[in-house]
Amino acid sequence: MAYDYSSESQRLELPNPYRVENVFQFTISVVYLACGVLALLAARSNLEGMSAKFVVPLIAGVLLIGYGIRCAAIGMTRLRFFFGRALPVGLAPELANGVIGKSHQIEVVQEDLRRGTLSFPEPVGALNGLLYDRFPRLILAPLPVQQLAQVQFRNGLLIAFTLISLLVAWLGFARPQTAEWVGLFYFVFASWLVLRPMTSDQKKQSAVNETGIIVLFVASILGPVIVAFFASSLPRLSWLTLHWQALFLLLASLCSVALFFAALIRQLSVPPATNMTCEVMSLNINTHPAQIINEFDRVMQQKWVEKIPNRRYGRIDPVINSDTATGSFTGEIVEETQPMPSQTMAPLSLSSALAGARSRWLVYLNLFGTLLLCAGAAALLLLVYRFESETLDMSISTNLTFALVAFSVGRFCFQASEKLWGRFDFVSEIIWLELSGQYTTARNRLGNDFSSTVRTESNGIHVDSMTMRVWTARVESVVFGKDAKRWITGMNGQSETTKGLADHLSAFARARSMFVAPTNPEDLSKIAAMQVSQGADQASVTQTLQNLMPSATQTPADKFCSECGVPQLSAAKFCSGCGSKFA
Questions:
Q1: What is the pLDDT of residues 523-580, one digit of tens each?
Q2: Domain containing residue 203
Q3: Residue 555: phi, psi to the nearest 5?
Q4: Is the pLDDT of residue 268 over 60?
Q5: What's the rounded Cα separation, in Å, for the pair 341 and 427?
Q6: Are 313 and 433 within one domain?
Q7: All residues at 6 or more sequence positions from 200 whose CB lies less than 8 Å from its CB, including other chains
Q8: d(C-alpha 505, C-alpha 435), whole Å
Q9: Which residue, of 265, 289, 312, is where some domain finishes?
Q10: Which residues cross the membrane (predicted)?
């Protein structure tokens, strides 16, 4: 999306919300680059052949430097934050100028406006029932917040149950061979259970499947028993002890999910006040009802915020068939003013983020992720030094698995916090005009066929008891990411705005004339000349001119030319029509 800039709309130059997260990203980048350089130095000292003492440090150094550069690149792309006039995205697809129609998305918003309510999907499932019982206000949260809360609540319960199962099974590790295979089972099981939802799309994990949860519970209970039963016939894994890594994986994952869930719940606000104002009028007019929509368009231009055009979501012009004597019509137009930040946002710093209720737990989540990522880099560097010192033992697998776990969970912390750092609250105004009624077409004539100098004729439209509805609402909305979908969190009716707009449109419609009459000064002069030539009284002609001519273009015609009858000013010496000299 292009960045639209205007010096008159500085309120949309929002401060960078990722400043605090950038500090952690650059810290991680420095740590990983330093560890990567040390690993490459160890590889350079072992250039003799393609041995493990050369290959392992080389691979580790490349991976460390690669992720360090990636963290630095993420931080540098967020050093500046641009939020143009075209953002945030609309509540529905916007219509270009001159386009007729509307989308299904705006019909959903219109239905909420009509009912004066906000609609939310009803949560289903046993775990969701427990979640919404403990946090009743969650039902009023935007849909992304609800989806993430459902996912993390489910993951947290599964991780906690698996952790308890591991501790219980650990007490039954009577034989070392059994402990080795049970530890492998729990590490693989916990990795699949924890890392899979952490690295996948959170929205796809929103549906809670009770059948899958039952399978996981049964596997966590019976799995260790089955493994212990066959452990005596399985080979020894003395070089691979993973029960400590499994314990660390479950504890770290549980802490990260708890921090993220705490930060997510802090995004909840008080239940919004939701109501709607609507003015309904019955009008009798003698003009095309589309003129009301055109006048609405002109009035809405005066409501442009910071000279930014309104977002138009729907327009349907009334259709009048001139070939039929009577018929029905409907028309509507829906516009939204430019969404503006609901409050003035100051540049974010670490101290202000820790002081904020919504951002404090996000800082804790980033800090926890930073510690895990740095611990993973240190574990991988220790693995390099063990190859360097030729002290190869089972601690190599311990360092490698520890680094993998720390990296995966730490990366999840930053992926999860990124969604919540990009929250912005906006306020705007939605105006919706509805027209419906019956029309009758007729031919209107003005002037006598035998005695009148000028006669006019036009096809007129008479609308009897047309229903006009005007809806307005002050809308509060939120986005998570500047290019993400915008969600309505509150609506408040604007009674004064609604009544003022309805009164203006009704007065405009009633003031439209059904007759056609000349208003050009040149046409009026010719009409006066025709009347004089037909013997009409000059005083009556003058009075007719004064009645027909607009007040802004009236000419003081206090004498007329005796030759051609064109009205003249009193100070004129020659006729402007024929050039005759006045006596």
A1: 666 666 665 555 555 555 555 555 555 544 444 445 566 665 556 556 666 665 565 6
A2: 121-265
A3: -115, 125
A4: yes
A5: 6
A6: yes
A7: none
A8: 11
A9: 265
A10: 23-42, 54-75, 156-173, 179-195, 207-230, 242-265, 361-384
Token pair of 387, please?
């190859």
Instruction: State phi, psi for 517 to the nearest 5 degrees.
Output: -140, 150
Total number of domains constituting the chain: 3
- Average confidence score pLDDT of the chain: 77
Q: Kindly give the interhelix angle for 19-44 and 395-421, rounded to the nearest 10 degrees.
A: 160
- For 176, the token pair is 């070392």
How many other C-beta atoms are found inside a 10 Å radius of the C-beta of residue 269?
Answer: 15
Cα–Cα dist 85/81, whole Å:
13
Arithmetic mean of pLDDT, 370-397: 78
Is position 318 within any domain? Answer: yes
Give a yes or no: residue 493 inside a domain.
Answer: yes
Strand 277-285 to 311-316 pairing? unpaired
Name every residue whose Cβ is closer than 8 Å to that of residue 148 and which is 6 or more positions away in sequence. Answer: 202, 206, 264, 416, 419
The CA–CA distances, whole Å, from 112 to 276, 311, 429 equal: 9, 18, 14
Same domain, 243 and 305: no
Q: Is the pTM of this model over 0.85?
A: no
- Tell me: do 201 and 285 sit in the same domain: no
Mean pLDDT score, 399-422: 87
Residue 406 tokens, joined? 């720390």
